[in-house]
Amino acid sequence: MTGNDAGVMAETARACEWRLATAQAEGRAPSVVAAVVRDGRVVWDGGRGELPAEAADVQYRIGSISKTLTAVLVLRLRDEGLLDLGDRIGAHLDVPHGADATVAQLLSHTGGLAAEGRGPWWERTPGELRPELADVFGERPQKHPAGRRYHYSNPGYALLGALVERLRGRPWAAALRDEVLLPLGMTRTGYATSEPYARGWAVHPYADARQPEPTVDTGRLAPAGQLWSTTADLATFAAFLTAGDPNVLAADTLAEMRAPAAAPEPPGWDGSYGLGVQLLRHDGRLLAGHGGSMPGFVASLWTVPEERIGAVVLANATSGPNTHGLATGLLDEVLRREPTIPEVWRPDPAPDPELVALTGVWYWGTTAYELRLRAGRALSLAPAGFASLRSSGFRPEPDGTWTGLAGYFAGETLRIGRDEAGAVTHLDLGTFVFTRSPYDPAAPVPGGAHPDGWR
User: Fold this and answer.
1) Over the stretch 370-425, which tens digit does the pLDDT of each residue have?
2) According to the model, what pLDDT value does residue 267 have?
3) Average pLDDT estimate for 92-112
């Protein structure tokens, strides 16, 4: 079953259908379903194999995509002022292990905690075997010093789920339902199955045979991988991850989640991790999303926020179908055949004349920079004529200053310097002085300008 009601061209739909059919056949999966969302709406979706209902409405287990939803809950707590990302988890929870890891380190898998839960394979055994947080950890829970390196940790997300429960005073799943799923309209996403749903299978690697996989309640580890969802719901979530929703999480906070927070592993890297979000370099673009796997299921969700597009793939086999390759391939097909159309430029209805007057060329020493005014009183500053890590956007603050958002100037404060009469004399950016002409003698350049001037 495939659909094209929302609007890609026929040749694009055909290419997407071919990729889907190939992934299902070569991956030997009982079923594979997929969707592409663009500008907030599904533009293509399809399914292949044994499907009990329309592809978009069939639930599959999404595994570690659950982590991204947990991260959204934690960032909501931060935005409400109930915690700081630099807080030690032990400041909020009486935890048996990992107390010195910060909230940000747990979100980015840099807390140094073990990758897997205690005891038998946690994804195939009931959560009842690990009823308390102490039961989640094995003999060596701390594998690396906190903050030293990236080391993926499912138990770390068990701690984050417990943090949500402590600060909200109710179960993680209830908080997720009321604060994220229902506001976004994700009514087919939840802790447990709801018909129609796909059954999970292990497919024999060398024979066309299969056997059912167990489907267990993972208990304390649920925030790391418990959830079930559909391509329709995850397409909604992908759209949210590209644009935000003020009822759930602001776009600025989502951008913070997408910033790399884990050091890359040597010798090179094509991926990293933010705050609950996997990051991937692919075909000259930076993708953000997450993969997932549980016994009987694999899943992928990838977005290209700058191009307002995302892809979701779900399959019901433990291994075999390359959901990651299919998701990125679907993005490739749509973006190659139907490039993203830029949003319509419109003039600012009421630009601030003083800020307009600030725009143009400023000099840091002898290097020319261009200051531009953006929407909402935001500014951008970049060296004229070449790319540099010293390029940045700046967010306006209530006190009349601006805060840097990227590169060298991320977090630094930009101020307007004035003389006693109130006239603008310079810009101060983290103590760097920018002037309208190189080393303007009338501006307070540290060290001053040579009295003989240019010669």
Assistant:
1) 999 999 999 999 999 877 778 999 999 999 999 999 889 999 999 999 999 999 99
2) 61
3) 95
Residue bearing tokens 């890891």:
101
3-state secondary structure of 347: coil
User: In the 8-state DSSP scheme, what is residue 342?
Assistant: P
Cα separation of 206 and 200, whole Å?
Answer: 19
Indicate if 209 and 239 belong to the same structural domain: yes
Q: Does residue 348 form part of some domain? A: no
Beta partners for residue 287, in sequence order: 280
What does each C-alpha distance from 73 to 180, 350, 415 come to in angstroms? 8, 36, 34
Q: Is the pLDDT of residue 119 over 90?
A: no
CB atoms within 10 A of CB 18: 12
Range of the domain at 163: 2-337
Q: What is the CATH number of the domain that holds 368?
A: 2.40.128
The DSSP symbol for 231 reads H
Q: What is the pTM of this model?
A: 0.90
Q: CA–CA separation, 323 vs 311, rounded Å?
A: 10
Q: 141-154 burial, b for 16+ CB within 10 Å, e for fewer?
A: beeeebeeebbbbb
How many CB atoms within 10 Å of residue 405?
19
Helix extents (H) in 132-210: 133-136, 154-168, 172-176, 182-184
CATH value at residue 309 = 3.40.710.10
To 5 degrees, how large is the angle CA 273–CA 127–CA 129? Answer: 120
- How is 20-74 classified by DSSP, letter by letter? HHHHHHHHT-SEEEEEEEETTEEEEEEEEE--SS-GGG-BEE-TTHHHHHHHHHH
What the block records as the tokens of 452 is: 């003989």
Considering the chain, what is the average pLDDT of its residues? 94
The residue among 96, 101, 82, 106 whose CA lies nearest residue 131 is 96
Residue 266 has what pLDDT? 63
Contact 155, 136 (CB under 8 A): yes
346/386 Cα distance (integer angstroms): 26
